[in-house]
């Protein structure tokens, strides 16, 4: 009897020890619990997935003006702004308006030598047209009018004045490298060095650069990067937008007028494309098929977000590059707007 009892006790003890040993071994081998990730990291991964689907060099900066959360992807690399450099030019003009040096009602006569290639309507109109500074600034933004842009550069004192103001604001990553005239003359010079000697009127009369090897020359012009339209990091362009939104870069009245002009943007195939129920004051910058930039704000009743998307060195289908920018913007809007709604 005692023997049976001892055998039973030994069996139970062995099983118990074996069970405890197995449990301890299992606990020791179990992977540590995953650290919860901030929700914004999920947004970042979604943006990276979109970017990885289109072969280009990217620079992205996102900031919520409500929570101060940020996403910065290659955000400190200098990028070719193309026409998004017109945003710092707009800021400089309004700062001079605040100082009484310029007035929105100032009249500007468009001479033949003021006309520029590319985007805009002024180049198609008759010489001698008179418009206000407000007209020029508006066309410079909503149609990216290059003629209006160089009129604005002339009014504020040139690209150097714009760059100096960016330095005064602490935005060392933003440089206005030249006028629209400088850029188009540089493009023509790639194919024909004689273009370097042309005056603005001669350049316009010569017409857009057309030579048999033009496409190869244009590609070399872009990839060599010797004549960017402007330079900026995504972070500093985002900081400039934030300063406009917070009335820190000019008077509240001037900041409000800048945002009003930006909300009237007519080139809407990127940031606003998949967004409904929100305003999108923004400025594009194009050099197909290589660059499709867009910078601005997404403003809904529930959230305000800065968004800067720079891209360059793209060689594929331009519509795909534009759509990637639009999808990035959609993800940003969905994330911040939905979360603000859910938090109510």
Helix-strand makeup class = alpha+beta
Q: Helix content range of the residues, please?
A: 40-55%
Overall strand count: 9
Estimated radius of gyration: 28 Å
Low-confidence stretches: 1-28
Largest sheet: 5 strands, antiparallel
Query: What is the 3D shape?
Result: globular
Order of strands, widest sheet: 2-1-9-8-7
With helices defined by DSSP (H or I, 4 residues minimum), what is the helix count? 12
Description:
Helices cover 48% and strands 13% of the residues. The chain has 344 residues and is of the alpha+beta class. Strand 1 and strand 2 (70-73) form a beta hairpin. Helix 2 packs antiparallel against helix 12 (318-342), helix 3 (86-98) crosses helix 6 and helix 4 (133-142) packs across helix 5. The radius of gyration is 28 Å and the shape is globular. The relative contact order is 0.15.
Question: Mind sketching the topology for me?
Answer:
Layout lengths: L1 H28 L9 H14 L4 E8 L5 E4 L5 E2 L5 H13 L8 E3 L20 E3 H10 L3 H11 L2 H10 L11 H12 L8 H7 L7 H11 L6 E2 L1 H12 L6 H12 L18 E6 L3 E9 L4 E9 L5 H25 L2
Antiparallel strand pairs: 1-2, 1-9, 3-6, 4-5, 7-8, 8-9
Helix pairs in contact: 2-12, 3-5, 3-6, 4-5
